[in-house]
Amino acid sequence: MSLHRSIFTIGFLTILSRIAGYVRDMFIAAVMGAGPLTDAFLVAFRLPNFFRRLFAEGAFSASFVPLFSAVYTEQGREKAVEFMEKTLSMMVAGLLVFTMIFQIFMPFIMYALAPGFAHDPEQFDLAVYLTRITFPYLLFISIVAMFGGALNSLGKFSAAAASPILLNICLIISLYALKDITPTPAHALAWGVAAAGVVQVIFLYFSLRKNGINLRFKKPQLSPEVRKLLKLMIPGTIGAGIVQINLWIDTIIATLVPNAVSYLYYSDRINQLPLAVIGTAVGTALLPLLTRKIKENKLDEALNLQNRALEISMFFTLPAAAAFMIISYPIVSVLFERGEFHQSQAIATAYALAAYATGLPAFVLIKLLVAPFFATHDTKTPVKISMVGLVANIVLNIILVLLLMHFKFYPHIGIALSTSLAAWLNVAMLITALRRRGLFKADDILKIRLRGMVISCAVMSLAVFLLDGFTRGFAATNQFHATLALGFVIAAGGGIFIIAAFLSKAFDLQEILNFLKRKKLE
């Protein structure tokens, strides 16, 4: 499957997942708003996801996919399946023990990971109880990450990209089916998380069988193949750990500010749309292709793939970031301002969205720039770079939050802004390291098109700013008018960006037409 086709498949399904996710978040906001109950559930939801990104989607996927691909290519399907079975057995055994330990010591863990809840015993106890329900999700989603990695290695991207949709559906159903029979809506959501893990595993298991991979659960043993995987994972786990610690430090600080966990969550969910659709789609499609080209010593083709991936990702990310900064409040208001989610909460969330948006291109770039390191089995360099980013984020967090607290102006903005600034530092260091190794070189086409994208974004930004002001009175009358006004501004802004991009040579129309023609022939 070509890079463009893979990106399209993953991106399309990720968009569907994100739409389902926004519907889910709209329901959560309407039912629970932004407050102590929502904060407690979000911490309970984040904890298993923290370790999922640490073990499953981070270091594990980056190490497992190249190894599985190599075994499949060099030794055949049977040996690849055997390697997968051995890895699965060890993963399940290890995570069962890990989950049991956390269930026992959850109150002490909560003191460390959400210290701001300690001043409210009721909220603290609720967070502990909800996390005990959600934490087994870690086991199931880790299995999902392995199954998805294997399918991606075979060039079958659709099932893995579609599986998050099941999580969103389960949460929506549980919220409305269980909220009247559980103590709070947060309890209903927690049970929905646990159920979603089981559903996702079953879905991907049958997807594997459909593609000729029939797994058997074997007795856990530390085979040479699994040892090699673990050895590769160690630096990556440390690196992913640094990134996740970085994010959890934001959560720790947020628990000290009333409702900040909710504000940051809702704003980050919006910011994650282009990051997931573009960054994850391009990064997921790029890694196996880049690994293959580097393994075949086709460095020029690998560099061309990387340049085109950067080009595609920035074409969509830069205008999205500009829009999030300029019309952050209308976006948040249309999505969430209803029921228990009031205007004051929408304004606080909008400020956080604008701060996150300043780092959106950097968040996407990081996903692409780490791919060459993983493709060459170098997981140590990204770790070292992440450590510098961690320190920078902590320092910036302290400075910006204290500064905003001094001026009594939404201190949670400092948390989002420090994350963005640290991401840009990470990008600068990754590019420097890749250049030294000859694994990154911006070609003339990329330079010309990036310049065109920046010019087009500037034109679009001015237009969006003026259109937002023009439609503000109409949008203020009711929610339906606000939705129409936002849709008009986004559509007009998008159209202006595309016209400006064409005139500034930010994209080649003939190249796109040729690609569409090839897809039609396929």
Structure, described:
The protein has helices at 3-32, 36-75, 77-104, 106-113, 121-134, 137-153, 158-178, 185-210, 224-255, 260-295, 299-326, 328-336, 343-357, 360-369, 371-375, 380-406, 412-437, 444-475, 479-503, 509-521. It is mainly α and 522 residues long. The chain is globular and about 65 Å long.
How much β-strand is present in the residues? under 5%
Number of helices: 20
Q: Helical percent range? A: over 70%
| Rg value | 23 Å
The count of DSSP E runs of length 2 or more, i.e. the number of strands, is: 0
Order of SSEs, N→C? HHHHHHHHHHHHHHHHHHHH
Low-confidence stretches: 518-522
What integer is the average pLDDT? 84
Q: Tell me, what's the shape?
A: globular
Structural class comes to mainly alpha
Largest sheet: none
Regarding quaternary structure, what we see is single chain
- Report how far apart the termini are: 11 Å
Could you write a compact summary of the structure shown?
The protein is mainly α.
Reconstruct the topology from this structure:
Layout (H helix, E strand, L loop, with lengths): L2 H30 L3 H40 L1 H28 L1 H8 L7 H14 L2 H17 L4 H21 L6 H26 L13 H32 L4 H36 L3 H28 L1 H9 L6 H15 L2 H10 L1 H5 L4 H27 L5 H26 L6 H32 L3 H25 L5 H13 L1
